[in-house]
Amino acid sequence: MSKHELLIIDDEAQIRKLLEITLHTNDFKTKEAVDAKSGLIMAATCHPDLILLDIGLPDESGHVVLRKLREWYTKPIIILSAHSSEDDIVKALDNGANDYLVKPFRTGELLARIRSSLRTTTSEIQKEILKYNDLQIDLTNRIVKKNNDVVKLTSTEYNLLALFVKNEGRVLTHSYLLREVWGPGYLDQLQYLRVFIAQLRKKIETEPNHPEFILTESGVGYRFVIKEK
Amino acid sequence: MSKHELLIIDDEAQIRKLLEITLHTNDFKTKEAVDAKSGLIMAATCHPDLILLDIGLPDESGHVVLRKLREWYTKPIIILSAHSSEDDIVKALDNGANDYLVKPFRTGELLARIRSSLRTTTSEIQKEILKYNDLQIDLTNRIVKKNNDVVKLTSTEYNLLALFVKNEGRVLTHSYLLREVWGPGYLDQLQYLRVFIAQLRKKIETEPNHPEFILTESGVGYRFVIKEK
DNA sequence: TTGTTCCGTTAAGATCTCTTCAAATTGAAC
DNA sequence: GTTCAATTTGAAGAGATCTTAACGGAACAA
Predict the structure, then answer these.
(1) E strand or H helix at B136, and its extent?
(2) Are residues B166 and B205 in the same domain?
(3) Do the chains contact at A154 and B120, CB–CB below 8 Å?
(4) Residue B153 to residue B118: CA distance in whole angstroms
């Protein structure tokens, strides 16, 4: 689980401290800003995964900050506010806020709303593209490229490669690979593995007979490694 | 602006009536269900753009309904509940709810939260008209053109194409396509998919037997790609 | 050296999956 | 009910993928 970085924009030191402690104990990283101006700058420079924005800032209304952020910032913004009037809430939500919590808020609820917001916006986009020298693997789109050319893999070849990538650096035994890719009924079909390893190497290795990525661990299995150049 | 269709799952006739009136005057279409069982069936058959779910249903807990919905339903779910305990809220949000409103709620706020939820999940395609070489797709008006001639698509064909366009470059598995276009009860009707892919290709591809846009990923699904020329 | 074991490579046939066409069925509009 | 368009079903052939088996090479021990 990669740590999400949140930006807190709030002028009250007490609230910032509370948020910081709560968020850190729940595995989030935080950045903090005390007013609108520094908040906008910090959002632009550190690209947080989510912004907690106080609506009552000293230098400028949070509503204005929200509009300015939304000109370019597409990730979730949760409003924290002492005002609970319907007008404020509707205005904030229509200006692009993802959620609105009235102070004093319950920390458990805040955390759940943060998780919910992060979930909905990262599940769609969350592009997981891995690059190993001239080999590039896009796990969400199921695309593999070698020297920027798309490599056509069959479904079994892809499943095998994905398994290797997810266990980079680790030795995967013959039986583990067979079980995961073909199923528990194929534990003795070692030959399948040999054939498919050969095919994969032919497609993704620069020199298939001197493999750089898929190494043989004789008598045990195979290992996918990345040699940094 | 195309009308969004919302599904209301609530056992109180009074609330349903209130929601119906509020939503209709704000340009939403609604469907209604009075208990968990009919709610789940209706969600599966009419594919609403958002679900308003009461947590206190007569036949089954809303939490259970929420979990069952989230096994396949990916669009927003907003919880309406008489309970305001933090436990309930956190549980619902962590089970996949996008928002949680405590009854009695303010209708203006509800509407703003609905708009906010719909915005985040449909914001992907803001471009009005998409142009891919000689293929042109207008998602807001449901018009598709090939070489500037309007292509007549049936509703199923269009839904399929729209789904591809929204997920350009990504492999969409057979089951995903079947679930999104036909519904979760059609996961084994692979043949439907094959027939409709063929029809779509005949209509939008220059050479239907050498597809340029809709590519086959044998054993997995299909992928919509744009080859920059 | 010889034998053994493990691994890599290749290619042909078997099998699974996809495409295509067409007929049957459904459902909506009149 | 009739008509028409759309969807569903079925079936044959084409295509892609998997399976199998045969062979050669490398590593290692006797």
Answers:
(1) strand B135-138
(2) yes
(3) no
(4) 26
Residue type, B215: L
Contacts of B185 (CB under 8 A, 6+ apart): B44
Give the length of chain B. Answer: 229
Q: What is the pLDDT of residues B84-120, one digit of tens each?
A: 999 999 999 999 999 999 999 999 999 999 999 998 7
Give the gap in angstroms from C-alpha B90 to the nearest C-alpha of chain A. Answer: 5
Nucleotide closest to B158 measured between CA and C1': D6
Q: Is the pLDDT of residue A168 over 80?
A: yes
Rounded CA–C1' distance between A167 and D16, in angstroms:
29
Contact between A189 and A182 under an 8 Å Cβ cutoff? The reply is: yes
Q: Would you call A228 helix, strand, or coil by DSSP?
A: coil
Q: Are residues B90 and B110 in the same domain?
A: yes
Q: Is residue B110 part of a domain?
A: yes
B124 touches chain A (CB under 8 A): yes
d(CA B9, CA B55): 9
B155 touches strand C (CB under 7 A): no
DSSP 3-state of A51:
strand
A107-125 vs B86-94: helix crossing angle, rounded to 10: 10
- Tell me: the pLDDT tens digits for A117-132? 998 765 544 457 788 8
- Asked which of B77, B98, B119 is the last residue of a domain, the reply is B119
How do A4-9 and A50-54 pair as beta strands? Answer: parallel
Domain holding A146, by residue range, is 123-224
- Length of chain A as a residue count: 229
pLDDT in tens, A173-194: 999 999 999 999 999 899 999 9
Asked whether residue A229 is domain-assigned, the answer is no
What is the per-residue burial (b if ≥16 Cβ within 10 Å, else e) of A178-195? bebbbeeeeeeeeebbee
| Bond from prior residue into A48 cis (ω within 30 degrees of 0) | no
Range list of H helices, B47-81: 62-70
Q: Are A105 and A132 within one domain?
A: no
φ, ψ at A149 (rounded to 5°): -100, 135
Q: Calculate Rg over the CA atoms of chain B.
A: 20
Question: What's residue A124's pLDDT?
Answer: 45
Residue B199: C-alpha distances to residues A202, B150, B173, B209 (Å)? 36, 16, 18, 11
B37 & B68 share domain: yes
Query: Are A15 and A113 in the same domain?
Result: yes
